[in-house]
Amino acid sequence: MAEKETEHKLTLRHLRIDDYDRIRELSGRVYRAVSDPWERHEIASMIQRFPEGQICIEDKGQVVAVALTMMLQSSIIEKHHTYDDLVGDGTLRRHDPEGDYLYGIEIFVDPDYQGMRLGRRLYDARKELCESLNLKGIVIGGRMPNYGKYAEEMGPQEYIRRVKTREIHDPVLSFQLSNDFHIKRLLRGYWREDTQSHGYAVLMEWVNIAYEKTTRLIGGIKSIARVGVVQWQMRRFSTFEDFMQQVEFFVDTVSDYESDIVLFPELFNAPLIHQYEDQSPWEAMRSLAGHTDRLRREMLDMAMSYNINIVTGSVPEIREDGHLYNVCYLCRRDGTWDSQYKLHITPEEQASWGLTGGHELKVFDTDVGKVGILICYDVEFPELARLQTQRGMKILLVPFWTDTKNAYLRVRRCAQARAIENECYVAISGSVGNIPKVETMGIQYSRAAVFTPSDFSFPHDAIAAEATPGVETTLITDLDVELIKELRLQGSVRNAESRRVDLYDLRWLND
């Protein structure tokens, strides 16, 4: 006999953007007396910034309950705040991937599914996420929708006391208390549109008893990043081994100052191209790519040996598709590595060397936080750094190669703009000198530098350090990553937060 089909088939999963129509319908039904339904761009931004925190329950393919969540630092939550202070325009601008608490934005359940404990299932999922991320706990601003019925009889403090003693039932507050949340304090004016709660809310916390404090010495993220920038002298090397000996000299020197990152310039292995003087520039660059695998392996070994993260500058690479690319490697001191390909190719690079642009934009996790890499011309496209910032980048590293001062100034001024508009640090590394008798590689101009945002906590000219033009040297600079977090929350202006995403938006088409 065939097994009888159950009435419901509930599945817990992460939200997808194709759930939007159902999300809009549900939020509109549940919160019609309080707020407008979520917009599509808001849900898309939440999923992009923190996909693990956006959870739903579906019944036979249809979403019936939703939980929206972000991560924040406890120092932000402890301050008096409103719903708009933290959630703002709904795009999770304040989501902090390095936060120590989950913050519950909203939970809504299809009214037809009330009584099936779907809210509890969603909270259990949040608790599991909190434990897996090793966060201190979950904090919410709990509404008090029944308070309006008692507002003339008692103040909010007395109402909360009576809900705690179960003399009064509140559909939200009572649920939170039964779900192991405890009350921290009353929030006045938390959500003024919530007339049912008279604008009040209760700051409530669930404590993760499995939380383990990590140290910044082992396995943690340092708050100060010491960055070394190499201004590289172009000159002929007889062999690959001679070239790598000079590379190791700078890695050794910068690591002696206990630096966390060392940055080399774009195409800094170009001096080896003189070995192929009998070839055309197009052929010579492809021959130069034959050194790339060995260079990456040896620089990864150096990263571990000298205990420093190495950004290898950029080098040519021939991929499986037969095309020639310009790639920069991040060799971490823990023995792992990753790569960022140059996305935009200049007309000269395409004509002389036949370079092809890459197709992926990355943000890299390191032990000094999230960093991005843009190779030379790419920094002149502001959309790229903005997308990296949306993914949590705080330090942008730019290896470049320019022949003349006006070309250098394009890179420099664009890099400075990226630092200001994205509220991040930007380090640029270029080459000086010349390689005689090498076509397309004759001269170089550079003034390596490290740029900062422009606000009170940073240098008055927004320049942390800069080199002397035309001289082989290094810059060693300490960058306070915590200042970036504070600036984005409390700066004189807050570019990322002030963007009018209701008027315009930016997205990576391959996401």
UniProtKB/TrEMBL annotation:
InterPro entries: Acyl_CoA_acyltransferase, C-N_Hydrolase, C-N_Hydrolase_sf, GNAT_dom, UPF0012_CS
UniProt organism field: Oceanidesulfovibrio indonesiensis
GO molecular function terms listed in the Swiss-Prot or TrEMBL record: acyltransferase activity, transferring groups other than amino-acyl groups; hydrolase activity
N-acetyltransferase domain sequence ranges: 10-178
Name this polypeptide is given: Hydrolase
Family: Belongs to the carbon-nitrogen hydrolase superfamily. NIT1/NIT2 family.
Record-annotated CN hydrolase domain positions: 225-481
Keywords per UniProt: Hydrolase
Keyword Coiled coil (UniProt): no
Pfam families: Acetyltransf_1, CN_hydrolase
